[in-house]
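User: I'll paste a sequence; please echo it back and then give the predicted structure.

Assistant: Echoing your sequence first, then the prediction.
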Amino acid sequence: MGLLVLFFLLSILFSFLCSIWEAVLLTVPPSQVEIRNQGGTWVGKKLKYFKSAIDRPLAAILTLNTIAHTVGAIGVGAQAAKIWSSAKLAVGPIELSIEAVIAAIMTLAILILSEIIPKTLGATYWKSLLGFTIYGVHATGVILRPIVWLSQRITNFLKGDKKKSVLSRAEFGAIAELGARAGIFEEEEFRVIKNLLRFKSIRAKDIMTPRPVVVAAKASTSILDFYQSNPGLRFSRVPVYRESRDQVIGFFLKDQLLSSVINGDGENPVESILRPIHVVHEKDNLTALFNALMARREHIALVVDEYGGTAGILTMEDVIETLLGLEILDELDDIADMQQLARQKWTERAKKLGLVVDEADEQ
């Protein structure tokens, strides 16, 4: 009887531990893995190692679990046969052998005590059990190294060399949204994260100031004439073109314009205070645009279309507005959306040309 109980307890104990270890390893989120790894501790580095090749610790855990179940079942069954070889248990009109009853009890115990309970504990209290799990799995892997090595060879052959990212952009966005709902992120923080994840899908043409509403100066125009023609100039950087707006050659700073007027250089053409302008394509994404502007320490870029013509102007302010999800207005701005203004102006011109009929006119 003593051996039967011993086999039973050992089988349940080792299976219990294996289930906890498995649940903990599979529950630890990638973010926690990186945090622990950056801490520089042995547990953190080992956790990173285990998660980067999850088949290794799982092979050790499943091997030990299988051994525990097999040895336990054989040991308990053999001892039960010795003790109750011919005994029967009557349940109503049905007679059952004691071995069958013991097998049923063993199965139920494995299900509850070594599967349901430990895996629930592991998934719920993984933070507290993480250190214990790493040490236990490491020791198991060392003891069962030959079997683990063979398991790795088999799994590597089956899965090939394909490596997939742990998190996709959609999953990361979903996690951020859950964090916002749980109060971990403020609404503004969540908006920035969501917009940042969209950076690669947003193009220059989506956020630029369109050509029809771009304030620009002809290169031959004198500084004083431009200043007098634009007394309430709201923009700090003004593009400069040769003969047409498709020939933008640079830009000048509003501060330089004012300084030239004050210093008596108003008769000089605006070309004299010209600065080079960075050119981008209208299909460039925001990540590339942001990196290019930061690398060049510039705040403005010329956006061209597929034919090389001027499509509009893009500034670092436009990029930051997209990231924050807000329109950044200074004390002189009275228009928030330049693209909307461009559409309104196009509609006005189209009405004058008879291309668009006003609904009011129809009535």
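Strands lie at 88-91, 94-97, 209-210, 217-218, 237-241, 248-253, 278-281, 300-304, 310-315. The chain is about 60% helix and 10% strand.
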